[in-house]
């Protein structure tokens, strides 16, 4: 069974204090690993897709990396507006017509204090 | 901004009533997915549909739950004879094709009295 574990569950940072969020996964044949951001009362907002080990993607203060067992979301010099819950999800390879479902972790709740 | 549209945003039902949740995918997206988020839990997959077809319903309870995505109109998630345990946030996502990122709506918060 596919599994995604995110750590830490919650993280408090001071503005400008860089850190990383971890996503460990177990999946039989990874098609893609997805990072989302979710604000309270809202749906997940797509950030990145990573497809193969060694791949990196960047967007503003965020950088996502992927190995064969885990992914990291690095946050450089965060600002209060980066406060949100960050979700990681995996999608498995299937034969044509198979499921496209995402398996999510429980998320990391990030708070950035001014 | 033609994102994924879900309605209603909030729905209150009494035990035993029916709940109908609607989802209009992003323009050009033919794949629709429904997920449920319980308090303190992660998003859980329920069902994956393409126009007029259910592709994967492995995450949907066998009893009381059904989903459709007709040729015309929004996708509907229907819950019959609701119980307290059905209280949750239900999210719809859409994508343009296989392996492409799924984009989510802001969900329907279902409360059962």
Overall, the morphology of chain B is globular
| Rg on CA atoms of chain A, Å | 14 Å
How far apart are the termini of chain A? Answer: 41 Å
SSE run of chain A: EEEEEEEEEEE
Share of residues in strands of chain A:
over 45%
Could you tell me the number of beta strands of chain A? 11
Summarize the structure.
The complex is a heterodimer of chains A (114) and B (113). Chain A is an all-beta fold and 114 residues long.
Description:
The complex is a heterodimer of chains A (114) and B (113). Chain A is an all-beta fold and 114 residues long. Helix content of chain A is 0%, strand content 57%. Chain A contains no helices and 11 strands. In chain A, strands 2, 4, 5, 9, 10 and 11 form a 6-stranded mixed sheet that branches. In chain A, strand 6 and strand 7 form a beta hairpin. Chain A starts with a strand and ends with a strand. The mean pLDDT of chain A is 95. The model of chain B has no long low-confidence stretch (mean pLDDT 94). Chain B has 113 residues and is mainly beta. In chain B, the strands form 2 sheets. In chain B, strands 2, 4, 5, 6, 9, 10 and 11 form a 7-stranded mixed sheet that branches. Chain B has a 4-stranded antiparallel sheet with strand order 1-3-8-7, with no helix packed on it. Classes of the chains: A mainly beta (114), B mainly beta (113). Chains A and B meet through strand 4, strand 5, strand 9 and strand 10 of A and strand 4, strand 5, strand 9 and strand 10 of B.
Keyword list:
heterodimer, A: 114 residues, mainly beta, six-stranded mixed beta sheet, five-stranded antiparallel beta sheet, B: mainly beta
